[in-house]
Amino acid sequence: MSATTEKTGEDRPDELDRLLTAYFRSEVPSPWPSLPTPGTTQPTATPSNRRLTQSRLMLAASIAALLVGSWLVTGKHLGPANPGVPIHEGAAKVPMDLRPDSGPRGR
């Protein structure tokens, strides 16, 4: 029993498929280049000790810059918030109704 398949309209490539197939086949080298043997290739150079040290220092500097920058952005500076105004003990002004010793009286 021979298996024959009929090509339906979905199986046949349209004109665009034929054009793309022809284009890509023309771009592929023929014959395909041979694979170089392992003895003819040069090993890739490994990074030197100096370059490795430099890259680690750059990484450390960038992490330090990120930490210092985030510290500066959050405003966690040392010293008073207003450097021109001295801080005195008990100088905070609390509204009368929020003070623990004087609440609403007579209510």
Properties at a glance:
single chain; 107 residues; mainly alpha
Short description:
The chain is mostly helical. 36% of the residues lie in helices and 0% in strands. It has helices spanning 15-27, 49-74.
Q: What class do helices, strands and sheet pairing give? A: mainly alpha
What is the terminal-to-terminal distance? 108 Å
Query: Percentage of helical residues?
Result: 25-40%
SSE series? HH
Helix segment count?
2
> In what range is the share of β-strand residues?
under 5%
* Low-confidence spans: none
The 3D shape can be described as: elongated
Radius of gyration: 39 Å
Description:
The mean pLDDT is about 75. The radius of gyration is 39 Å and the shape is elongated. The protein has helices spanning about 15-25, 50-75. With about 110 residues, it is mainly alpha-helical.
Which helices and strands appear, and what pairs or packs with what?
Layout: H1 15-27, H2 49-74
